[in-house]
Amino acid sequence: MSGHPTGSLHLIKNKSIPVPNHKFNNFKSEPFLPIVKHRSVKEYSEEEIIANLKDGNEIAFKRIFEIYYRPLTLFALKYVGDIEESKEIVQEFFIRLWSRHDKIIFGFSLKGYLYQAIRNACLNHIESRKVFERKTRDYVSPNISNDNPLEKMVAAEQEERLMYAIDQLPEKCRQIFFMSRTQNLPNQDIANQLNLSVKTIEAQITIALKRLRDIIVVSALVLFS
Fold first, then answer.
1. Which of 25, 69, 78, 189 is deepest in the core (most CB within 10 A)?
2. Which fold has domain 168-225?
3. Global model pTM greater than 0.70
4. H helix intervals, the chain
5. What is the model's pLDDT at position 76?
């Protein structure tokens, strides 16, 4: 299969690639990346996913996108420091990945290829930004001499596991948790905004913290099993 895929498509930068239509919730405290409900990587082997992708299989591409889009964006964020630029870099990468799916040599591993490709894209982005800013104003070059890609990758994957755990919370519980921990709102203010009692807010935060601990433990056991 080649060219533009068929079926229900989500548009990224007006280019059709077969990525899932992720749900974004409306309240401001939601995470800046799609909610992920399923991310099992054991349905197919990595070799099968790569082989199917190279054959132009849309399902294989979607699985790669579902598993890696968010951690790769968090990884890019550690280089460029801006979430919108990070999303742009990763989205552009997936466009290139699909358009060249039959020509890519993945080497040792799919995961290693993806993170290396995003690192290179980030460094290119930083360099192009430096060139532009040198031409427009005085510019102080950022120090990337101590760059540690492995450390950034581990940190990004830890953050993604936490976000994944938060995704699994019931909607109201998740909303209250974000208002408390991300917006740093007092329980009374949350109660007023949601028309709930302070005791309900306290109980929901306690439930959220317990569930997060349980989900993170299970996720870690599955990851390293």
1. 69
2. Arc Repressor Mutant, subunit A (1.10.10)
3. no
4. 46-54, 58-80, 83-99, 110-136, 149-167, 171-181, 187-194, 198-223
5. 92
Q: Per-residue pLDDT tens for 84-120?
A: 999 999 999 999 999 998 888 887 789 999 999 999 9
Q: What is the mean pLDDT of residues 30-59?
A: 69
Report domain extents, the chain.
Answer: 10-149, 168-225
Give the C-alpha separation, 148 to 153, whole Å.
Answer: 9
pLDDT of residue 32: 46
Q: Which residues of 125-139 are buried (b: 16+ CB within 10 A; e: fewer)?
A: bbeeeeeeeeeeeee
Is 190:176 a contact under the CB 8 Å cutoff? yes
Give the residue, 183 or 88, on which the prediction is more confident: 88
